[in-house]
Design brief:
Helix content: over 70%
Distance between the termini: 38 Å
Radius of gyration: 19 Å
Number of domains: 1
Oligomer: single chain
Strand content: under 5%
Number of helices: 8
């Protein structure tokens, strides 16, 4: 490629645990922020299930509620991808990319029953002291972490490379607006999800995240970050922080 046809693309965000960030014209910062939050949560839940005594029903109740927040965020993210992103990429890409893109939705479907099984396990431990249930839940959460981790690796290395090759930044913003917009979940849920998404993002990346996410995201984070961090410490009080992603 000659010097006159080379492109200068935005630097892609790289966060702890992330597998890849293919170069291209679309700034996928918020996609990678969400992936970081999913990885962070599952690593922390895995540690919490193993460390929390089965008799500590107050903490298990908090863990059950916190799992519900994680599951809602993941469901909204995957629903946007299934409804908007994968169809757009299938329309614009060639037949050589079809297997990867069709696998994305299939992998989502594999994760859904694991989420439900984990929710059932947290609910069980919130209601009674059952060490067998805790052992079973530890297996389920580990399986969920492995399944989602495998999917995110596949998505970051292959699907995001396709995205960067076939979409423009305008295409991406249109898909975000139509399928990932905040008003799909309501203001109360936005207030819950903003500190959840930003929690644990390294300090050196925060200014860029807030610039990209916008003023509302930043203001909500300012208003909720302390309360969210306090709740995290209570919910995961048996976990040695930080966990390894």
């Amino acid at each position: 490629m000659s010097a006159t046809t080379q492109h200068t693309y935005p630097p892609q965000l790289r966060l702890p645990g992330q597998t890849a960030a293919p170069d291209g014209p679309v700034d996928l910062l918020m996609m990678y922020v969400m992936h970081h939050a999913f990885r962070r949560d599952l690593a922390t839940f895995e540690a919490a299930v193993r460390a929390t005594p089965s008799s500590d029903r107050v903490t298990w109740s908090r863990l059950a509620e916190r799992w519900a927040l994680f599951a809602r965020a993941l469901h909204h993210h995957h629903s946007g991808e299934d409804a908007g992103l994968w169809p757009a990429l299938l329309e614009k890409s060639g037949p050589e990319d079809r297997a990867t893109l069709e696998a994305m939705e299939a992998e989502h479907a594999e994760i859904d029953p694991l989420l439900t099984a984990c929710a059932d396990g947290f609910a069980r431990l919130a209601s009674c002291d059952d060490d067998d249930a805790r052992a079973a839940l530890a297996v389920r959460v580990s399986a969920t972490r492995e399944s989602l981790g495998r999917h995110l690796r596949h998505e970051e290395t292959e699907a995001m490379a396709i995205l960067e090759r076939v979409l423009t930044d305008d295409d991406w913003h249109r898909i975000e607006e139509e399928h990932f917009r905040a008003d799909d979940v309501g203001f109360t849920e936005v207030v819950a999800l903003v500190p959840w998404a930003a929690y644990g993002v390294p300090r050196e990346h925060r200014a860029r995240v807030f610039r990209t996410a916008g003023r509302t995201f930043w203001l909500v984070w300012l208003a909720t970050r302390t309360r969210f961090a306090r709740a995290e410490r209570r919910t995961f009080r048996h976990v040695q922080q930080p966990v390894t992603l």
